[in-house]
């Protein structure tokens, strides 16, 4: 399992960029598009976290099943 700090910085960077785009679009009056950008950013981060959890569970499985 290779969890390093760069993954945390990637997630934080995505959050900052999505927040900035959301704010700009909301001030322009395009609230629907701003909400969609937020949902898309959330889904991207969710996939990253699910991939990390998959690696974690795989590592736990190899530890306890001695494979």
Question: Features of this protein?
Answer:
elongated, 2 helices, mainly alpha, 67 residues
Write the layout of secondary structure elements.
Elements: H1 5-27, H2 31-65
Portion in helices: over 70%
Strand content: under 5%
Nearest-integer average pLDDT = 90
**Distance linking N and C termini:** 15 Å
Total number of helices: 2
Shape: elongated
When the domains are counted, the total is: 1
Per DSSP E runs of 2 or more residues, the count of β-strands stands at 0
Runs with pLDDT <50, length 5+? none
Secondary-structure-derived class: mainly alpha
* Main pleated-sheet profile: none
* Strand and helix order: HH
Q: Please state the CA-atom Rg, rounded to the nearest Å.
A: 17 Å
What would you note in describing this structure?
With 67 residues, this protein is an all-alpha fold. The chain has one domain (5-65). The protein has two helices and no strands. The chain has helices spanning 5-27, 31-65. The radius of gyration is 17 Å and the shape is elongated. The two termini are 15 Å apart. The mean pLDDT is 90.
Concise synopsis of the structure shown:
With 67 residues, the chain is an all-alpha fold. The chain contains two helices and no strands.
């Amino acid at each position: 399992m290779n969890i390093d700090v760069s993954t945390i910085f990637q997630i934080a960077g995505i959050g900052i960029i999505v927040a900035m785009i959301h704010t700009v679009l909301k001030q322009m009056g395009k609230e629907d598009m701003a909400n969609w950008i937020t949902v898309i950013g959330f889904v991207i981060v969710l996939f990253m976290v699910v991939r990390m959890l998959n690696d974690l569970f795989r590592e736990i499985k190899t530890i306890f099943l001695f494979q």
